[in-house]
Every structure is written in structure tokens, then in C-alpha cells.
Amino acid sequence: MSENVLYILGAGFSAPLGLPIMSNFMNRARDIFCDNPKEMKHIGSYLRKIRDLGFVRNYVEFDYFNIEDILSLIEMQALGNARQKERVDIRRFIADVINKSMPEFGPAASTPPSRDDKIYGNFNIPRQKYGENIMRSYGYGLFVANLIKLIVGPDQDSNFRELNICRDFSSNGSNYAVITFNYDTVIEKIIERIISNTYPTNTNSNLTIIDKYKNRVNFFKDQGIFTLAKLHGTASEPSSITPPTSRKLDSEKMTPVWRLSYNLIAEANHIRIIGYSMPKSDNHFRFLLAAGLSKSKNLKSIDIICLDENGDVRQRFASVINHKHRFVNGDVAEYLAVLEEKSKNQHTADSRIRECKFEHLEQAHTEYIKTYLKD
After folding, report:
1. Phi, psi values for residue 256, rounded to 5°
2. pLDDT of the chain, 375 residues: tens digit per residue
3. Measuring CA to CA, which residue among 244, 198, 208, 307 is closest to residue 66?
4. What would the DSSP string read from start to end of 257-320?
5. Beta strands in 11-137 (DSSP E)
6. How far apart are CA 27 and CA 102, in angstroms?
7. What is the DSSP letter of 224?
8. What is the pTM of this model?
9. Residue 365: exposure state from Cβ atoms within 10 A (0-12, 13-18, ≥19)
10. Are 231 and 258 in contact (CB under 8 A)?
11. Residue 349, SS3?
12. CATH homologous superfamily for 3-19+103-372?
């Protein structure tokens, strides 16, 4: 019997790729503007607006470096002045910073290119860009390939050009779904890369998949394979963005995504939260999680993986989730490294001559929890 596995991804999931998180979002915006002030003059005007907010601290407690506090204040000012343009600008500001921070796919790491390069490639982060070191990891591609249950078979030249997506492996009956808070398009870019590097063996079904993929709400839903819900919208469509302010449910456009997320939580057998710290200010998701879990039919496990320097994150989750859960003070790089290691056992150099199934996520998750769980 298949089981529903739900991943809930926060900013910590994308952070190793150089995407900004709450605490460094403003610093990233300044770096992007200084790199190209003419092209990024919109960001510059917003930075000046934010600089002028400094006087607010004379009256109320205000975190001048917290993007949520800053944008909430600007939005309230716009509300008081009935200036709808301000909110549109907030979305554009967020989208510009995220899109400029998105890493590009790098060149193949070997000659001839490895199987990984041929199928999904690796993101390339230039050394010292915005203070980040270079990261060459195929873990993100492996993660997505497992989510969509990718099977790749070689063509006559053993070039892995045929794409076949399977509903269910005999050794892995999990149905995967993702809820993400992130504006970035890391998962989408990898799927696009996989599609562009392969050609469909079943034209009718796979071309339909590509068409449905463009709606940004859920991938492959009709095929029952993989669902993606982007709670806060996507940087590729700035109009969909829900800013990190107090008004997260105002957008009618995003209501179906929140409804989808509610159902995914209710139907999940296993929930895995990665890189999300459950901030006190995020009551919207806290109540969404509570509402979904209240309708849960057969929830078996909740695993949380998040960096936690002083124990605050663990405590916040413990205060919200009464269901038995496991908390690991760790990051996504370690998690993906275990997945890479597990994949090597089957996907060896001679795998070019046979079918490759990406079905190692359950084994990798079990081993990661066993290895890194301290309690």
C-alpha cells in the first residue's frame, strides 16, 4: 500500500545554494544593487525607502534588519495612504532579489559528462559570490528526481536520453508532495532541466505533464505522482508573491494553494520539515498545520530537520506539535549528502547501460535520522 510523504521546505532548504533567508535578505539586496545600480535601480529606491524608516525606532521597537518587520511597516504606510502601487513594488522588490540570487547550472564536472550532468546537472555558485563558497553538489537534482519517481533508460548510444515517469516502484510505494514557503524556483528549474535533457517515451502523457507543470500550483497531479504547493507564490511570477507581512491570506489567487496545502497535511502519513524554524510571527502556517492535522487519518511520523544554535527552534516546535516527533539539529547539505551516498550504491559507472530508477529517498531519510538524531 502506498503512503503519502509530505516535505515542508523553509528557507534553510535553499540557503546552501546562496538564496537569501530572512536574516540576510537586506544584505543580499544591497549587494545586488551595488553590483549593478543602473539595472537594479528599483531595488535601490526601495533601499532608500527602508533607510528612511530609521526614525521609527524613536517611537516603537522595530527590527531595522528584519525583512518581515520592514515590509510590514511599508505595507501599513501604503494602506494608510491608499497607495496600491506600494504593494506591487514590494512584490517586485522580493522577486528581483530572489531571481538575481538564483544560481545557474554549472558546466559538467567531468569529461565525458557523468550521468548526473546528463540528467539534471548541478547548480554552480561562483566562489565568494555574496560571501558564499562554491558548492558542487548533485544532491538537489537527486532529491527532485526521487520526488518525481524518475526512471531513465539509455538510448542506443547509452546516453540516457529517454524519460519515463513511473507511478509506483515495487520497492518504493511513496507518493511525494512538497509544501514550500520559498519564493525561489530551485525545484522548478531542476524539473525543467530534466525535461530538456530527456525526451518523453510516452508523448501523450508526458507532454500533458509539461503543460500542467506551468500552473505553478501542483506538478503531475493528475498522474498522482508529485504535488508542489508554493504557499507564498513564486519569484517567476511576481504578481503571485505574498510578501512576508501580516496579510498573507489576502490574495484570492493563492487561496487554492492554501487549500491544497491543508489537504496535503491532512492526507500525509509522514511529514518531513526541512529548513523551517517555525518563527513565532508565522501564525498563518501554525494554524494551517493545526487545521490539517486535526483531519489527519493516519499520520505515522513527523521529522524536523533545521539548524538550531540555542535550542529555540526545537522548543517552538515542541510547543506547537503534540504528536510524537523527531527533531534533528542539522542542515539540508548533510541530508542530501546521505542521499548522494545511497544513490552511488546502485548508480555506478556502468549504470549507463541499464535503466536507472531514482528510488533511494526513503532509505536515505531513514539512515539520516538514525545517524544524526541525538536523542
Report:
1. -60, -30
2. 679 999 999 999 999 888 998 888 888 999 999 998 888 888 888 888 777 776 666 667 666 666 766 766 766 666 666 555 555 478 888 999 999 999 887 766 666 777 777 777 777 654 444 344 444 567 898 999 888 887 776 554 555 444 444 434 344 578 899 999 999 999 988 887 877 766 544 443 333 333 333 333 444 444 445 788 888 888 988 888 887 765 555 566 678 888 889 999 999 999 999 999 998 878 888 899 999 999 998 999 999 999 999 999 999 999 989 889 999 999 898 999 999 888 876 655 444 446 677 888 999 999 999 999 876
3. 244
4. HHHHHHHHHHH-SEEEEES----TT-HHHHHHHHHHHHT-SS--EEEEE---SSSHHHHHHHHH
5. 104-105, 123-124
6. 15
7. T
8. 0.83
9. buried
10. yes
11. helix
12. TPP-binding domain (3.40.50.1220)
The grid coordinates of residue 141 equal 537534482
200 forms beta bridges with 163
Q: Where are the domains of the chain?
A: 3-19+103-372, 22-101
Q: d(Cα 254, Cα 83) in Å, to the nearest integer?
A: 22
Q: Which of 142, 97, 133, 123 is nearest to 189 (CA)?
A: 123
User: Which three cell numbers, joined as nine digits, stand for 29?
Assistant: 539586496
